[in-house]
C-alpha cells in the first residue's frame, strides 16, 4: 500500500515539471540562465498570447532552438540517494520514520529534482519546545519560527495541461485541458502569537483560528481561435507588423471542489484545566457530476518593429463556469471521537465559479551585435512574476544573465552560458529560487541539449 | 486539545529531525493544599507515609512518540516544628493512579535526622531516564510521598512544602 503511495508520489514529482513546462517553465537551460525570461516565441508565449500563433516560432535572428532536451542530472543524484528498490522504506517518504522530515519532503515537491542542486536551501531541523503548566502553554519553534507567515499563504495556479489542435488560414481549432487551484491559509493573531511569541504564548480563553480557502476545478475546453497580421512593415517578408489573436473557449468542467472556513480551538481557562472546545466549521462545495459549463476567451497583441518586439496576452477573460449539480456540505469536528464529520446541507444546487484572469506582457530587443534583451511580467493566477534577462551571442558561444522577482516578491538571479556546434547546442543555466520552505535561496544548475 | 495540537503541529512540524521537548511545570497542576503538607506523627513510629497524587496533562498527539529521555527535577523545604525523626521525600510518576506509588521513585531525598526547630532543603539529584514508556501518554499521575520515621518521644510535627517539580521530556519526532 505504502509502496503504491510512494510510487504515485514519485510519478507526480516527475510529471510536475512536465505539466508546468508547457505553462510557465521550460526545460530550456537558456531560460534559467536568463532569470526565467523567455526571449523566444516558444510555447510559453503562445500559451498566454494567442497572437503569437501568427508569428513564426523560430526567428532566424533569435537563435531559438527547435527544442531542448533536459539533462536530468538531479534525477540521477536523487535516485542514487534514494534507490528506487528501497523507496518503500525511505525515511524521506515514511512519516513513521524518526528521520522523516516534512520540510524536506515539501521542498522536494516544490523543487522536483530534475536539475542538479548546487546549493540546497537548508531544512529546519531545530528542536521545538513546549513549556507547559496548568495555565501556561508556550511554543518555541526555534529557528523555524521565521517560517510562520505574517499574511495569508498558500499556492495556486491556472495551468493548461495540454493544448492540441490544428488550423488553417489563421484559424485554430483544438481542445485544451485546464486546471485551476488555489489554496490559501491565514493565521489569526492569536494563533500567530501562539506560534511566534515565546514569552506570552497561548493565553487562557484564546480562540486560535486557522482560516482556509481551498478551491480546485478542472476540465476540458474546446477552443476556436484566430491569429493574424493586421499591419506589416515596409518589407512584408520580415516579421514587422501588428498581430492580433483571440480564442474562445467553451469550458467543460469535469470536477470542482471548494473548502472554506476556520479550524478553531477555544483554549480553556486555565489552559490545561478543562478540555478546550475544538471547532472545524467549514463549508464544502463539490460537483456531483462532470457538468460544469461556461465560456471565456483569450486575447493578445504582438507588435514587431525591426529588432523590437512587444506583446500582451490575457487569458480566461469572463471565464465563469456554471455547475448545475453541486452539493453543499458542512464539515465539523467531533471532539468526542476526534473525527471530522460531514453533513449534507443542500444537494443538486447550482454553483458558479470563475477562472482567474491570467496574463503575460513581454518585450524583447534583438540588437544586431548578437545581444538580446528582454523581460516579461507573468501572472498565472496567484501573484505576479517579473523576469528580465539578456543574452550575448559571440560565434558559437553565448553568455546569459537575468533577474526576476518571484511570487513571494523575492529577487532571484540567473547566470548561464552555451556552446552551439551546428545543429546541436549545450546550455547551462544557474538560477536561484526560493520555492521551498526556507528563507534562504537555493541554487540550481539546469543543463540541456538544444536542437537547432 | 487534540485539535489544538493538530493545528499547531501543522506548522510545528518544522522540527524536522530535531526533537520535541516538553518542559512541564508539574507543580502548577497541584493545588496549594497538595504542595504544602503538614504532618503530625506519633513518636517511635518506624515508618508512615503521607502521600498525595494528582493527574496532570501533556499536549495530546504525542502518545505515539518515542520518548528519548525524561529529566525530572524537584525541590522541597521541610520544617520540623516538634519531636524528631527522619523524612524521606519521594516523587513518582505513573500512567494510572493505582500504580503511582508501586515502583521506584523517580526522585528521592532524605532529610537526615531532624529535631524540633530544624529546617532543611530537600534537593533530590536530578534523575534521567531513557526510553521511559511511562511518558507515552497524554495524561500522567504524579505522586508525592513523605516517608516519615519518628524518634521515640513526643509527636513529630512539621511541614513539607514542595517548591519545584519540573519534567523535561524529549521525544522523537513522531508527532502523529
Short descriptors:
heterodimer; A: 452 residues; mainly beta; 18-stranded antiparallel β-sheet; globular; B: 176 residues; Jelly Rolls; 52% strand; elongated
Secondary structure layout:
The complex is a heterodimer of chains A (452) and B (176).
Chain A: H1 2-23, H2 29-33, H3 43-48, E1 67-70, H4 73-81, H5 102-110, E2 116-119, E3 128-133, E4 136-140, E5 153-168, E6 171-187, H6 189-196, E7 207-232, E8 241-266, E9 277-287, E10 292-305, E11 308-317, E12 320-334, E13 339-354, E14 358-366, E15 371-379, E16 384-394, E17 397-405, E18 411-421, E19 424-433, E20 442-451
Antiparallel strand pairs in A: 1-20, 2-20, 3-4, 5-6, 6-7, 7-8, 8-9, 8-10, 9-12, 10-11, 10-12, 11-14, 12-13, 14-15, 15-16, 16-17, 17-18, 18-19, 19-20
Chain B: H1 2-12, E1 20-25, H2 32-35, E2 36-41, E3 48-57, E4 67-82, E5 84-94, E6 107-110, E7 114-115, E8 119-122, E9 127-130, E10 139-150, E11 156-171
Antiparallel strand pairs in B: 1-11, 2-11, 3-10, 4-8, 4-9, 4-11, 5-6, 5-7, 5-10
Short description:
The complex is a heterodimer of chains A (452) and B (176). Chain A is mostly beta strands and 452 residues long.
Description:
The complex is a heterodimer of chains A (452) and B (176). The two termini of chain A are 45 Å apart. Chain A is 13% helix and 53% strand. Chain A has 452 residues and is mainly β. Chain A has an 18-stranded antiparallel beta sheet that branches. The relative contact order of chain A is 0.18. Chain A has one domain (2-451). The longest helix of chain A has 22 residues, at 2-23. Mean pLDDT of chain A is 83; it is low at 1-24. By secondary structure, chain B is mainly beta. Chain B has a single domain (2-171), classed as Jelly Rolls (Sandwich), CATH 2.60.120. Chain B has helices at residues 2-12, 32-35, and strands at residues 20-25, 36-41, 48-57, 67-82, 84-94, 107-110, 114-115, 119-122, 127-130, 139-150, 156-171. In chain B, strands 1, 2, 4, 8, 9 and 11 form a six-stranded antiparallel beta sheet that branches. In chain B, strands 3, 5, 6, 7 and 10 form a five-stranded antiparallel beta sheet that branches. Classes of the chains: A mainly beta (452), B mainly beta (176). The A-B interface holds A 95-96, 98-104, 123-137, 139, 141-142, 144, 147-148, 191, 194-195, 208, 210, 263, 265, 267, 272, 275-276, 278-280, 333, 335, 338 and B 1-4, 7-8, 10-25, 28-29, 56-59, 66, 172-174, 176.
Amino acid at each position: 500500500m505504502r509502496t503504491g503511495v510512494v510510487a504515485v508520489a514519485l510519478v507526480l514529482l516527475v510529471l510536475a515539471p512536465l505539466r508546468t513546462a508547457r505553462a510557465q517553465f521550460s526545460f530550456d537551460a537558456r531560460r534559467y540562465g536568463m532569470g526565467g525570461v523567455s526571449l523566444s516565441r516558444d510555447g510559453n508565449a503562445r500559451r498566454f498570447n494567442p497572437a503569437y500563433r501568427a508569428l513564426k516560432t523560430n526567428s532566424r535572428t533569435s537563435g531559438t532552438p527547435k527544442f531542448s532536451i533536459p539533462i536530468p542530472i538531479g534525477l540521477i543524484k536523487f535516485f542514487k540517494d534514494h534507490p528506487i528498490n528501497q523507496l518503500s522504506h525511505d525515511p524521506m517518504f515514511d512519516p513513521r520514520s524518526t528521520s522523516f522530515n516534512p520540510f524536506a519532503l515539501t521542498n522536494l515537491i516544490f523543487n522536483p529534482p530534475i536539475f542538479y542542486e548546487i546549493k540546497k536551501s537548508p531544512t529546519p531541523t531545530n528542536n521545538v519546545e513546549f513549556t507547559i503548566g496548568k495555565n501556561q502553554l508556550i511554543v518555541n519553534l526555534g529557528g523555524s519560527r521565521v517560517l510562520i507567515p505574517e499574511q495569508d499563504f498558500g499556492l495556486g495556479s491556472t495551468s493548461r495541461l495540454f493544448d492540441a489542435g490544428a488550423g488553417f488560414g489563421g484559424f485554430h481549432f483544438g481542445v485544451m485541458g485546464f486546471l485551476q487551484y488555489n489554496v490559501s491559509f491565514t493565521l489569526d493573531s492569536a494563533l500567530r502569537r501562539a506560534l511566534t511569541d515565546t514569552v506570552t504564548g497561548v493565553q487562557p480563553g484564546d480562540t486560535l483560528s486557522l482560516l482556509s480557502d481551498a478551491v480546485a476545478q478542472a476540465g476540458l475546453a474546446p477552443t476556436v481561435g484566430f491569429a493574424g497580421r493586421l499591419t506589416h512593415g515596409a518589407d512584408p517578408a520580415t516579421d514587422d507588423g501588428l498581430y492580433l489573436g483571440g480564442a474562445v473557449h467553451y469550458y467543460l468542467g469535469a470536477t470542482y471542489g471548494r473548502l472554506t472556513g476556520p479550524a478553531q480551538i477555544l483554549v480553556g481557562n486555565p489552559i490545561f484545566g478543562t478540555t478546550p472546545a475544538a471547532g472545524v466549521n467549514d463549508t464544502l462545495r463539490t460537483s456531483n457530476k462532470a457538468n460544469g459549463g461556461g465560456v471565456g476567451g483569450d486575447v493578445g497583441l504582438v507588435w514587431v518593429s525591426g529588432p523590437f518586439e512587444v506583446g500582451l496576452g490575457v487569458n480566461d477573460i469572463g471565464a465563469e463556469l456554471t455547475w448545475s449539480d453541486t452539493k453543499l456540505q458542512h464539515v465539523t469536528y467531533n471532539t468526542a471521537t476526534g473525527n471530522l464529520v460531514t453533513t449534507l446541507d443542500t444537494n443538486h444546487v447550482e454553483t458558479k465559479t470563475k477562472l482567474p484572469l491570467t496574463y503575460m506582457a513581454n518585450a524583447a530587443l534583438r540588437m544586431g551585435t548578437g545581444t538580446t534583451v528582454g523581460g516579461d511580467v507573468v501572472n498565472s493566477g496567484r501573484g505576479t512574476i517579473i523576469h528580465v534577462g539578456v543574452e550575448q551571442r559571440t560565434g558559437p558561444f553565448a553568455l546569459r544573465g537575468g533577474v526576476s522577482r518571484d511570487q513571494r516578491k523575492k529577487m532571484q538571479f540567473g547566470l548561464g552560458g552555451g556552446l552551439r556546434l551546428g545543429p546541436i547546442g549545450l546550455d547551462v543555466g544557474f538560477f536561484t529560487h526560493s520555492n521551498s520552505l526556507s528563507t534562504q535561496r537555493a541554487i540550481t544548475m539546469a543543463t540541456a541539449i538544444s536542437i537547432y | 486539545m487534540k485539535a489544538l495540537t493538530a493545528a499547531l503541529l501543522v506548522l510545528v512540524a518544522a522540527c524536522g529531525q530535531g526533537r520535541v521537548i516538553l518542559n512541564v511545570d508539574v507543580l502548577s497542576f497541584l493545588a496549594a493544599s497538595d504542595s504544602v503538607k503538614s504532618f503530625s506523627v506519633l513518636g517511635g513510629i518506624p515508618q508512615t507515609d503521607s502521600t498525595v497524587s494528582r493527574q496532570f496533562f501533556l499536549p495530546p498527539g504525542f502518545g505515539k512518540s518515542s520518548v528519548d529521555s525524561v529529566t525530572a527535577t524537584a525541590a522541597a523545604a521541610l520544617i520540623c516544628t516538634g519531636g524528631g525523626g527522619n523524612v524521606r521525600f519521594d516523587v513518582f510518576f505513573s500512567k494510572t493512579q493505582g500504580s503511582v506509588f508501586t515502583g521506584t521513585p523517580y526522585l528521592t531525598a532524605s532529610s537526615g535526622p531532624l529535631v524540633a526547630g530544624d529546617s532543611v532543603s530537600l534537593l533530590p539529584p536530578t534523575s534521567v531516564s531513557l526510553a521511559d514508556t511511562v511518558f507515552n501518554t497524554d495524561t500522567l499521575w504524579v505522586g508525592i510521598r513523605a516517608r516519615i520515621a519518628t524518634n521515640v518521644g513526643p509527636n513529630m510535627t512539621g511541614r513539607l512544602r514542595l517548591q519545584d517539580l519540573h519534567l523535561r521530556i524529549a521525544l522523537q519526532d513522531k508527532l502523529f
